[in-house]
Amino acid sequence: MEQDKQRLPRRRLAELEVQESFFRGLLARDALDTDVIEELADVLTQMGRTQEVIPLDQRLIELRPTDPDVRYNMACSLALLRDYERAANELSAAIELGFRDVDSLNSDPDLAGLRAHPAFRRVRACLSQIKGKPES
After folding, report:
1. 2 found inside a domain
2. What gap in Å lies between CA 129 and CA 126, rounded to an integer?
3. Of 24, 121, 120, nearest to 75 (Cα)?
């Protein structure tokens, strides 16, 4: 199920379509450019095409497996698709990898549905377990 995004004004949608085309062109030249993959994922998310973002997020996880932000972004995509169990697992993985932006966990609108879901308890438990551990 796609996320519920407000309808974009025509002009903004046209801008995003140009950006999408640009980033897809760059990606065709260098499929391993993680910055371009991230930008394309962001554009598609803004367009409400979250289902298309999942393969990009998966590719980023393959290319940067220890990057907590990549896992966080995957969790956001999954939460937007209401796949809360997998989203909670990805957030837990992000925390294990060093994600510590508690403000984002508590306020990111992409995670609103997940915060209301029982699976979010696992995320809070994971966060509380690492609070006492020293930073490495």
Report:
1. no
2. 5
3. 120
Question: Domain range spanning residue 50?
Answer: 7-64
Our count of domains for the chain comes to 2
**Contact call for residues 94 and 72 (beta carbons, < 8 A):** yes
* 3-state class (DSSP) for residue 68: helix
CB-based contact 63:85 (threshold 8 Å): no
pLDDT tens, 47-79? 999 999 999 999 999 999 999 999 999 999 999
* Long-range pairs for 69-76: beta carbons < 8 A, 24 or more residues apart: 69/94, 69/99, 71/97, 71/99, 72/99, 72/101, 72/104, 73/38, 73/41, 75/111, 75/114, 76/45, 76/108, 76/110, 76/111
SS (H, E, C) 14-35: HHHHHHHHHHHHHHHHCCCCHH
